[in-house]
Amino acid sequence: MQKTSTRLADGRELIYYDRLPVRRSDHPDRRTLPKQTSSSRARFDSLTGEWVIIASHRQDRSFQPSAADCPLCPSRDGHLTEVPAPEYDVVVFQNRFPALTAALAQVSTSALAPASTGGGASGVAATGALANVPAARTAGAAHPTRPSSSILRSIAGEGRCEVICFASDHDLSFADLSSDQARLVLDVWIDRTRDLARSPGIEQVFCFENRGSEIGVTQTHPHGQIYAYPFATPRTNRMLDMTTSYRRRFGRNVFDDMLAAERADGSRIVAQNPSWLAFVPYAARWPYEVHLYPKRRHADLTGLDEGERDAFPPIYLDLLRRFDQLFDTPAPYIAAWHQAPAHDGGRDFALHLELFTNRRSSGKLKYLAGSEAGMDVFANDITPEQAAKRLRALAP
Amino acid sequence: MQKTSTRLADGRELIYYDRLPVRRSDHPDRRTLPKQTSSSRARFDSLTGEWVIIASHRQDRSFQPSAADCPLCPSRDGHLTEVPAPEYDVVVFQNRFPALTAALAQVSTSALAPASTGGGASGVAATGALANVPAARTAGAAHPTRPSSSILRSIAGEGRCEVICFASDHDLSFADLSSDQARLVLDVWIDRTRDLARSPGIEQVFCFENRGSEIGVTQTHPHGQIYAYPFATPRTNRMLDMTTSYRRRFGRNVFDDMLAAERADGSRIVAQNPSWLAFVPYAARWPYEVHLYPKRRHADLTGLDEGERDAFPPIYLDLLRRFDQLFDTPAPYIAAWHQAPAHDGGRDFALHLELFTNRRSSGKLKYLAGSEAGMDVFANDITPEQAAKRLRALAP
Fold this sequence. Notes:
The structure is a homodimer.
Chain A: E1 2-7, E2 13-18, E3 41-45, E4 50-54, E5 90-94, H1 147-150, E6 154-156, E7 160-165, H2 179-198, E8 204-211, E9 223-229, H3 234-250, H4 254-265, E10 269-272, E11 276-279, E12 288-294, H5 306-324, E13 333-338, E14 352-357, E15 359-361, E16 364-365, H6 370-375, E17 378-380, H7 384-393
Antiparallel strand pairs in A: 1-2, 2-5, 3-4, 3-6, 5-7, 7-9, 8-9, 8-13, 10-11, 11-12, 12-14, 13-14, 15-16
Helix pairs in contact in A: 2-5
């Protein structure tokens, strides 16, 4: 894998990840773009203990442009896009309309990368300004002694929102990728996780894909996103709380016991190979939901060894192809990598991917209404065992 | 208010709430309905500490029937509905496709009700079977000593799901109600809260309204729902955790301090009267979100005094009418009453209503994609101060 860091016309970083060596310095961004000046805030909800990102500069972002205007396709004459080169394997760049705005201009170079061949010289130096941001895990301790002012508090919404294009062909989906290409995407996720987790002020790295207009996806080009948050996320914090209380009670790891229970039961397993296990979770919230775990526990993607990396594409592509066959058209889905926070919680956390769709059947969506959106209580109409049985029966 | 409890053809309870005395025994349900035999389960997610309801019998429930087939309109010749009478003020009945299935057939009669004039004789007696259900707040303590089996555990999904029809006129919305009618709805919410919280096994009562197809509403008739859960909900549990840690740290109530801070700041206040305060919360998750609090703290709806009840309709109708004017068509919304659990947490909880829409602008929805649905991190494009300013500027 060759990694080449460059800059777009407005100063955002773009990184080419190529399977084979290729010269990347010949294609500067020829657009004229306004300088990025936006900034967001993260506000703390004192009633729930959760951070909310307020990003008012995003109101004008693009909303489902036509394929001809796709900003994720390679550039060609008369159609200059976010990617200056005429083709690419995988490319990552800072989102033009980010929820979390950059203080980080230049992240550290990954040990994986053989060379950083381009750009970057004009980049803003890393400010280190994030180092003093309170981590969400300890935010409660940061209450000053005057309650009424501490109740309304915020931090800079500094972090990083990246777009990752899985392939240059506009018409593919992730499920269409070759194993080699999917492996390259995995290597990029690993590289981004390593780089971003090292960056000052970053508390958690989240690699994910939203697919389908029912999920609100504004671009159909095969792509995902990577968020580097300046706080640990609420869902991860809850899992860490559960691992802690479980270890205190039983002296064991809750993820290990859960995987052992799923393997012993078997009724919810969808697919597996020597390195990975995929199953519908016992308390699934979504109509079709599959969790994919490496059988050996790792805190995050960087811990995967060569064998586990090689074994990932076949099982993940298998799952996505099953999802594509669930309904009369390919299922909308969210695929979310759950990793330990950058600086905390690694001991007991288990890296895994959660893949789910909000479609119940060909004509019906699962909406988040009062119980879900108001109280966080999900009602699922399809039993996890039924869902696993249907997914097993589909040919990948 | 006259309260009359009756039974539908399949044994479900239906309760008429009338402003003036009226004979309700003349209109039996003339339909032939299959007996309700469904049952649901609540499964515990050992990784997040949250309950998920698995209700597979709901897959066949109706999905946006035409107005002519509305099951919430009063019955007329040739069109027999869920409501046998030819008109009603407010009516409540057990949902035919409930997420939580009934063990409770007969809830206790409210002190508010002057008479229970009808039906009920053929009803199934209360089983009391729920009394041994572990409360979610203490569920962690219920782990047996064998971790691998305790990890996959569930309880009966016994509780109660009610439909509340706000008016018999199909074409109204809540915002169209008179103050008298809105006050009757409030009295019904109070009565249902009191009755259901007393029922065996019920840990939390949740009154809410979903409005609009973008929220997934399957019926356009003006109505809401009431869920009586056999566990305290995740969102309420988080708020209780925050009230506890705040009191430990500051010796004060976090809701009181938050309301004082909002009143002192003022920039997010939308409306108020001597008894109620409505504001966009500092860390709003949704594009337009308003929280409505009684200025005097109560644990739940039953604590509201006569003056507070009288003062509710004007400010709530005002808010709904502002929401109706935000966009080119009336905003889809969720209105959610947050109350203390039935048996726990009342000391520091503050009753309030959370009203929000998932519409960002006339053509755009706020979707829950990777960050929200995967990590519970909301990104909001509209600042709470902008939202409050717009809502203040609209004529109610």
